[in-house]
Amino acid sequence: MNRLALISGESTMKILPLLLLQIALFVGFGWVQATPELGGSVYSPDKGVICDKVSGFCVDQYGISMGFTKEFLGQDAETKLMEKINQAGTEKFDAARYTFSNSVYCDSEQRTCFEDYDSDNLASDYIQILFPE
Fold this sequence. Notes:
Layout: H1 3-7, H2 10-34, E1 42-46, E2 49-52, E3 57-60, E4 63-65, H3 66-73, H4 75-88, E5 97-99, E6 105-107, E7 112-114, H5 124-130
Antiparallel strand pairs: 1-2, 2-3, 3-4, 5-6, 6-7
């Protein structure tokens, strides 16, 4: 059998699934490896999303997201978040500005995050996830 025959046909059919598996593992684990550790109850379950189990909400680049809250924290978290919004009043609720349970404060309209509300120190890991350039 010549070398060209080894590259095509049955050999390719054996190699192709392994190659696809390697690509899937590289792509799948690439985000996990590239995601900074946020620590505690605050984590990034997907590219561009940060969730806080203690505070009970998830955010994306636009602010607090009911959809991501439900997807990553569950229906109960979404229901509790809606109750909090209704108690505060929808006119007073600002989904673009929020503080995580670890005191990190973000402003989605300004596209920035700080170590806490009164800090000038940027929370660069959060900025990197939520507002990538």
